[in-house]
Design a protein that fits this description.
heterotetramer, A: 272 residues, alpha/beta, Elongation Factor Tu (Ef-tu), domain 3, 2 domains, seven-stranded mixed β-sheet, 16 strands, 33% strand, B: 314 residues, TIM Barrel, eight-stranded parallel β-sheet, four-stranded antiparallel β-sheet, binds flavin-adenine dinucleotide, binds flavin mononucleotide
Chain lengths: 272, 314, 314, 272
């Protein structure tokens, strides 16, 4: 059993102009991925694109791995060219995973961030309060499944073409405010664009600073450019608060998103 | 050409000598692309490697540069890790014991901001059990000399190599910077200053601009180019160095398969190191070793040393 | 940043001044990749180009190197054409009349084996009607100085640029070799010796080995690397030169689209030249010109000069 | 009408492990290609492979261009991945073409060389004495069509799996010897690997040197690495005899295969 394996493309389904669902069938025994973990996928077969690209596991079934992705640049474009039968190399599962929630929880997804959160929501069916925001209706991929496995769902789009018009963090804020102070705090899992995570941190920080509110556990899946995905290149680091800093003048150290992450406690990250 | 009647039955010799070290085969890992060996030990049997070269160390730990630290380029990548590392002491305490389990030479890459730091690091590493050779990374700026890069100024390079040579009895490999007019000259200086081998190439300085932000993509502005894009430059440099030095050469830069490794060996490298390609295929070093063996068998050679420097030029 | 109320309606200014030449836009062709303009005139309207730079000329015709002369490499190519050309006289007689039909500056790239040859060629070209500027290719070896490459030795370069400066009143562009330790220094020397502009980068020396034949693929052993593979190196060098000289810079090396051209302009180039990309897409220069215009409109700039050298560094 | 155009892939048919037939439908009006001309085809859509590759026109019909190719290295491998609907850029028709034969003629094809000669044979139906050699039966692609349009055909394979075992130039030699000396000399058109062309030159030269034999017109299609295909890079040159050499000590000049060729008079080429 190796984390480096070949896989055959079963299909590579176009969901709309930007989003695809890639189904792979590994050609050897593989480890079972946990929600939040990711794989480095080969996207082409020449030296351009050169590096593998990281993608969260979206679904794992017996002898099948699925990835939900958005076409962004040349790597994902190249990935979108894969057709049934094509064989690619993959490395994974990699990184840590979302801590198991005790009871109900909040899942905050911005756009393609849903890819990383759905496995958690699927595993703990009907326990998630889903907050899912995207630019438009078209970009709210997998919404039906996401709603189906959630306890309750809150949807926003930037243009109002589906759900509420506005930012998903605003909906989250309202939700917090509507909860009775005595409500058992729900752990929160978030994945999405950095501005969303930054805003989330602002919200969480204000709650922490409010002596009346209970402290929320909050885990975020971080993104950084990756070269190796396995912890050797040191390309993917984020600043994390630390008691044992490298440099005594600074209270932080670099941690690798691919190894110590991608899931971090939001309070540990230094948001600049 | 070593064709013996039953050559098909014989397994050709792959082992080479570098600076007094005996390598099972000429395939090593390039510094900074293989960590301290642990991460990739999940993927391959380290005992099969010719040697392992670890991430560059300094006497004290370093945080390295802010992010983004890497960006992909056509057939290559730029990195500006900024020499983040755990420092010599933590390496000796936490990482060396793991590496000592294996029956392969451990080559430690190191650097400093000043000649004193180089000397100090070399001394500390020379006393550690399980370090078999040192590789000096001289592609870093010299604080004392106003941040001139050690490896691009002949005088500065001569001083630092001479100083380190006195500080260690371990085999000493000098890793050359490609950002120079005459790499042959730099190699010659390293040889005269006491290097037992030279390795080349380190990365070539490059920049990618984010045109919308009108900023470099890398937080450090520039980074080092590696990967297949640089291979033709690296092969040419190995050949230029081979023509002027007697000490062995460790060739690297863009090797992703056995054919690429052979280009370097034929051009004069006695061993090769694989860097960026590990990221793409964690098993690439093993596949290259197997590919070299196959090439020797197919072409009727009985010993890899027969092809080293065998380039016929016009 | 030049956003005016009706900026969407305005066509931004694309014209730039280089060494006294007024270019309609900053996009030129790179020497050796566009012949003398005839072949590509079937594919595009030459009048739309910023300028045309023709294949390098010497005072007498040259046969060039034996074949193979080219080989593809990852995201690049090596060429060892060996400066095959028809010679200055035949160029003036047979090719210039064609080029005179167009309303764009014609820049003539030239070279020699000795300072005398450079002077002689510059003089001949300066007297020809329809030559608007000269580009000196100094990436060739100096016969007299024992085949030291003019462009990699500061002294030799200073001599040849000073000599040519005296031999011509035309705008003089010095095309720098990237095979040097400090390209900023070389640019500064060219500026002090009287260059009106510098262009960079010429190709980077490389080699590809045919491992079965144990020979270089190119008949000339080595060749010059061009194409996207070198772009990060070229952009970095333009930026280094921009920091130290006042004369305009013509940037090139791996440009294949408007985004690439913008990287160079933002890093400090006042114009760009497109080389290898012409082979892939004969219409690429026109597409780049259109892409630059679109970028300026989209980003709210009214003049291309606003972005030249606008790189914000950390 | 431009020689640089986009074309849509109609299909890309696998004939066997090594050979493919690519059918393109140009998306704009194009020039009509002549037998012997070629196109530079884009093979991928990233920077690796970087350069276009040259391929002889194999068939031209209204709004359709076909190319017969052999998978050799990364360019042709990449070309073999094109699927129906994919759009590529192409430049052509390029180069000169085979001079029009007066009457009957000989077509000498080595392997994939058939791709360049078939259009000539098809155009002048049943006028060709076809000599077609390949490594094995499998590599004798398009043999049925080639035979059908020929007056007479001679086939050899290296391994004897089809036709005679041996070299095609030996068959040609025999044929020459069997012709009566008074036979009107047949023009000869050849395309194939350099060793075959070199051997052909030896044969032709011996005929020329034999005062009793009549001089044969002989045209060969040459191959060289190409970067531009249009005459600007000077990468694809061959040595050609010349009355006006560049250097007076040598009686030859370099000519561009892509511009003055690919078809040359065999006697003009300097075979080294
Ligand atoms: C742990 C992890 C899990 C991921 N999971 C998924 C997933 O399930 N589905 C999915 O669609 N995407 C996912 N991503 C993001 C995905 O890896 C990038 O979109 C992809 O690498 C872009 O490659 P490209 O060549 O297409 O784009 P590039 O040409 O490399 O870049 C295009 C644009 O995307 C940005 N970009 C590129 N890489 C990253 C990155 N790592 N982080 C942030 N921005 C980036 C660039 O800045 C640029 O603006 C994940 C990233 C990480 C780190
Ligand atoms: C005018 C012309 C017409 C051609 N027509 C056809 C055709 O109709 N069908 C067809 O299959 N091929 C044809 N070829 C050959 C074809 O262009 C090459 O096979 C192709 O470029 C190889 O590209 P690659 O990237 O797959 O191989 P590479 O990786 O570039 O090379 C693979 C092998 O092929 C050899 N090779 C590459 N290019 C050439 C070349 N130009 N000449 C000789 N050897 C070469 C290399 O030396 C190497 O051994 C033609 C070539 C020319 C010049
Ligand atoms: C992410 C990364 C980190 C590197 N770190 C070091 C280092 O610490 N010390 C060193 O001498 N070289 C370092 N290098 C350079 C490599 O060892 C090697 O010389 C270079 O990458 C060329 O080889 P490649 O093209 O096979 O990667 C690093 C390269 C990369 C890509
Ligand atoms: C085939 C070829 C021929 C060239 N000939 C010349 C030349 O005659 N004179 C010159 O100064 N540069 C010459 N160059 C260098 C180019 O002008 C340019 O500097 C280089 O190719 C980098 O740009 P690119 O990556 O866009 O091609 C040549 C380049 C190529 C590829
Ligand atoms: S991607 Fe290499 S260390 Fe994380
Ligand atoms: S391929 Fe460029 S001149 Fe012929």
């Amino acid at each position: 059993m190796s984390k480096y394996f070949k896989a055959k493309t079963v299909d590579n389904i176009s969901l709309n102009k930007h989003f695809r669902l890639l189904n792979l069938s590994p050609l050897s025994d593989i480890d079972i991925p946990q929600p939040g973990q990711f794989y480095m996928l080969q996207t082409g077969d020449t030296c351009d694109p050169l590096l593998k690209r990281p993608f969260s596991i979206f679904r794992h079934e017996e002898n099948s791995l699925s990835f939900l992705y958005r076409i962004r640049g040349k790597g994902t474009l190249s990935l979108s060219r894969l057709k049934s039968g094509d064989i690619i190399n993959a490395i994974g599962p990699l990184g840590n995973s979302y801590p198991v929630p005790d009871g109900d929880f909040i899942a905050l997804a911005g756009g393609i961030g849903i890819a990383s959160l759905l496995p958690l929501m699927r595993k703990f069916k009907e326990r998630a309060y889903l907050f899912y925001g995207a630019r438009s209706k078209e970009e709210l991929v997998m919404m039906d499944e996401a709603k189906a496995v959630s306890k309750e769902s809150f949807i926003t789009t930037d243009d109002g073409s589906e759900g509420k018009k506005g930012l998903i963090t605003d909906s989250l804020m309202k939700f917090f405010n509507s909860l009775p102070i005595t409500h058992h705090p729900l752990p929160l899992y978030a994945c999405g664009p950095t501005p969303m995570l930054r805003e989330l941190y602002r919200i969480i920080k204000s709650k922490i600073q409010n002596p009346k509110s209970q402290i929320i556990e909050c885990y975020v899946s971080m993104e950084e450019y990756m070269a190796c995905g396995v912890g050797v290149c040191l390309g993917c680091v984020v600043k994390v608060r630390s008691q044992e800093p490298v440099d005594s003048s600074q209270k932080w150290i670099y941690k690798r998103v691919c190894k110590e992450g991608p899931v971090f406690d939001i309070k540990d990250i230094i948001w600049e | 050409m070593g064709i013996t009647p039953n050559s098909e039955l014989r397994i050709p010799n792959l082992s080479v000598d570098i600076a007094g070290l005996k390598l099972k085969n000429p395939v090593m890992t390039a510094s900074g692309t293989f960590g301290y060996g642990e991460e990739y030990s999940e993927f391959l049997d380290l005992n099969r490697l010719g040697a392992i070269v670890v991430k560059g160390l300094s006497i004290t730990p370093r945080q390295g540069n802010p992010t983004p630290r890497i960006v992909e380029t056509p057939a290559g990548m730029l990195n500006a890790i900024g020499l983040q590392n755990i420092g010599v002491n933590v390496f000796i305490r936490d990482k060396l014991p793991f590496l000592r389990q294996f029956d392969i030479p451990v080559i430690v890459n190191f650097f400093g901001d000043s000649i004193d730091e180089y000397i100090h690091a070399a001394e500390m590493l020379s006393n550690a059990e399980g370090v078999h050779a040192l590789e000096m990374n001289i592609s870093c700026p010299n604080k004392q000399a106003g941040w001139i890069v050690f490896g691009t100024d002949p005088k500065t390079m001569e001083q630092v190599v001479t100083a380190v040579r006195k500080a260690t009895r371990l085999p000493l490999i000098v890793k050359l910077s490609p950002n120079v007019t005459d790499i042959g000259l730099m190699a010659k200086i390293a040889e005269n200053a006491g290097a037992d081998a030279v390795s080349l190439i380190n990365t070539i300085t490059g920049m990618v601009v984010d045109v919308k932000k009108q900023r470099p993509v890398l937080a450090n502005n520039t980074g080092g180019l590696s990967g297949p894009a640089v291979r033709p430059i690296a092969v040419r440099m190995v050949w230029e160095v081979y023509k002027v030095v007697k000490i062995p050469i460790i060739g690297m830069g863009g090797i992703i398969n056995a054919n690429d490794a052979l280009e370097f060996l034929i051009a004069g490298a006695r061993a090769v190191a694989v860097g960026t390609a590990n990221f793409i295929n964690p098993n690439v070093t093993i596949e290259i070793i197997e590919g070299l063996e196959k090439f020797l068998i197919d072409e009727g050679f009985s010993d890899i040393n027969e092809i080293i420097g065998s380039l016929k030029i016009s």
